[in-house]
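Lest this sound abstract, we think one record worth quoting, the chain in one-letter code, the fold tokenised, each line plainly labelled:

>
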Amino acid sequence: MIVVGGEALIDLVPVAQPPGALVPRPGGGPYNTALALGRLGARTAFCSRVSADGFGESLLDGLRAAGVDLSLVQRGPEPTTLAVPSLAPDGSAAYRFYVEGTADRLFTLPRALPAGTRALALGTCSLALEPGASAYEALLRRESGRGLLTLLDPNIRPALIGDPTAYRARFLGWLPYVSVLKLSEEDARWLGGRVSDWLAAGPSAVVLTRGAQGLSVRTREGAQYEVPARRVAVADTIGAGDTVNAALLHRLSALPAGDPVDWPAVLAYAAHAAALTCTRAGAEPPYAAELRG
């Protein structure tokens, strides 16, 4: 079982017709990661607090359709968080968020994860917005101490971070509890650190997404690998990084403890999955059958 913790929200995605229209689509980095894992065929549970409003119900319907376990989902009467992406000509997205008084911010630490859980993934808004951020941080520390594979994707959203200096310090405090740190080049620049320093703090590997340039990894032992991105017609890049998270977790959590990681193969699988996501509007990760052959 892979547990993904963090927010589920609604992206109000701009469309060409009619001009100025916004179409609601399920989103949130952790939600997209859980959805992608379910579609890839991994046993997955989503750990979050989701609104009881109509948007919340539609979010859970999407996870159910992908076979994701919802037993760790908390419910609340508060509204669903909204995000409004603006798309650049290359398909990349910047976001405005509506987060005041929303359900996912009120997440509380669950007593225990399901028996057989092997991995935990956290990231994005859920680690930036209190009081839920502290609960997710406590979950990371507790489950790392139990020996789980942990993946952190900070997926920085500057508009949500009131004190960048404090956030950067907090990020460094998470690293001793992280097995794999995955982040984009933009995240790395915003955080302002060095991969070598992050590896020294705890993670066994740092995976960097580089847009059209592909993916790279550097391990604590000093190994480095790169794979190119697959060339596709890009609709947008929404959810591509989240699909990378899912692909990494799907492959890494299946390895017996102590087995070496075939990083070029893992990265190639993640690049393929992300490329398929980019061919579709909104966060629509691929199914396992689409990655065969």
Observations:
- The chain has a mean pLDDT of 93.
